[in-house]
Structure formats: C-alpha cells, structure tokens
Amino acid sequence: MSLTDWEGVAGGDPSFVGLSNFGGLATDGIFRQTFSNNVKFTLFVLVAQTVVSLLLALLLVKNTRVNVFYRVLYFFPTIISSVSVALAWILMYDPNIGALNILLERAGLGGLQRSWLGDRGTAIFSLAFVQFWQHTGQVMIIFIAGLQAIPKELYEAARVEGANRWQTFRYVTWPLLAPAAAIVVAYTTIQSFRAFDLVIALTDGGPSYATEILSTWIYHVAFRDNNFGYASAGAVVFMVILGLLTALQFRVLRVDR
C-alpha cells in the first residue's frame, strides 16, 4: 500500500506510484517536525524514566512490607488507562484552575505560569512528563527483578575486597543489570514512539503540530486526510526506525538477545 496512491474505499481503486510517497516524506516539513517531536519526547522519557526508576529500584529492592507498599503505589499509575490519565493531567495543566499553576503562584513563581499544553515550547515536554509519570513504576519493577537476580555472594566478596558503594555498583551491580537495562531502554523507546492514545487524548497533536508524533501523524494522514498510501509509507519508515533503534540499543549494551 505504501507504493500506491489510495484515498480509501470511497476513493476508488489504488494507483501505483512507486517510491513517490517516500520521496514526499523526505521533503515534508510536517513529517520532519513530527519526527523531531518524537525524538524530544523519547529522549526526555528515556533519560528521566531510566534514572528515576533505577534509583527507586535500588531503594526498594528489599522485600519488606514498607517497600512492597511503595512498589504498589509507584506501579499503580501503570494499570490506569491512558485516557483516564490524560483527563487527570488536563486538569493539572489547566492554565486557569490547574494545580500546577496554582502551586507556582503560591510559591511566588507566578512568572513561570503558562498554558502547558497550549504553549509550543512546553507542550511536548508536558506530554513526555505524563508518559514518564505513568510508566516509571513499571520500569522500576523490571529493575528490581534484575537486582534480585544478582547473587548476594558477589556483594559479600566486594565488601571483603574493600569496595565502597559506588565501586560495588559500577563493577558488580551495573554489569549484571545490563540485560534488564537493555529491556528497559528498548521498551521505553518503543512505548515513547507509540504513545498514541496519550497524545490523542491530551492534545490531538496540537498546537500547530507541536505534539504530533509519528504514530498520531500516521493516523491523521490516513483517517483525517484519507491519504492511506502516504500514511502507509510513513508507517514503513516508522517501523524501520524502531527496528534500527532497538538493534542499536542492544548492541551498545552488548546484550545477547
């Protein structure tokens, strides 16, 4: 379908156009902006989610009642539907009655108040923060599983050798946690590139394509513009990008799949 020009069932039969759809993507300013948005969104979520979830896992790795309670608490947002999460954060980000702007005003930081989802400069990062908030607990569980799989004898040996906490983490914990880290990085990247429902519910790609990502762009081109051939070409590029990124991540982390 990516090699055709087709407007859907109502538009008649598809016509073969070769690689012209892919050529159009290369010069499409909106597609380039969409890809840039996706990179910003993914990098923000990947860095924030990996760092915060790893810190939480290190703090909550022991199976105590208190730790189990906090694990459940941090994991809870993951089981809430993205639409419900979006509705809650729309209220949080509301420029007039939103809790975020109210807190800034009461803290004497009224100059930082803004329309978080309506400002082109902050909209994509506001979306990324919601994605980070919802899935950090899930990533934390992956790290906890990886940490609990490390033999305790290795920590005892490191302690006998006089290693401090940083040295123990660097030379014992992190190398053995690499498989879990690879899963986290790949999973977070894929989730960030396909954060379709969250974007549709919060901004629908606006304002002026500032929060349009590849998955929502494909949807809009296909079902709003009725350009299924062009959308299919974008979907092929989307899948190639995800495949290359995942392969690169596993190679960098040197994990045998």
UniProtKB/TrEMBL annotation:
<feature type="transmembrane region" description="Helical">
    <location>
        <begin position="171"/>
        <end position="190"/>
    </location>
</feature>
<feature type="domain" description="ABC transmembrane type-1">
    <location>
        <begin position="35"/>
        <end position="249"/>
    </location>
</feature>
<keyword id="KW-1003">Cell membrane</keyword>
<feature type="transmembrane region" description="Helical">
    <location>
        <begin position="41"/>
        <end position="61"/>
    </location>
</feature>
<protein>
    <submittedName>
        <fullName>ABC transporter permease subunit</fullName>
    </submittedName>
</protein>
<dbReference type="GO" id="GO:0005886">
    <property type="term" value="C:plasma membrane"/>
</dbReference>
<keyword id="KW-0812">Transmembrane</keyword>
<keyword id="KW-0472">Membrane</keyword>
<feature type="transmembrane region" description="Helical">
    <location>
        <begin position="73"/>
        <end position="93"/>
    </location>
</feature>
<comment type="similarity">
    <text>Belongs to the binding-protein-dependent transport system permease family.</text>
</comment>
<dbReference type="InterPro" id="IPR000515">
    <property type="entry name" value="MetI-like"/>
</dbReference>
<feature type="transmembrane region" description="Helical">
    <location>
        <begin position="132"/>
        <end position="150"/>
    </location>
</feature>
<feature type="transmembrane region" description="Helical">
    <location>
        <begin position="228"/>
        <end position="248"/>
    </location>
</feature>
<dbReference type="GO" id="GO:0055085">
    <property type="term" value="P:transmembrane transport"/>
</dbReference>
<keyword id="KW-1133">Transmembrane helix</keyword>
<dbReference type="Pfam" id="PF00528">
    <property type="entry name" value="BPD_transp_1"/>
</dbReference>
<dbReference type="InterPro" id="IPR035906">
    <property type="entry name" value="MetI-like_sf"/>
</dbReference>
<keyword id="KW-0813">Transport</keyword>
<dbReference type="InterPro" id="IPR051393">
    <property type="entry name" value="ABC_transporter_permease"/>
</dbReference>
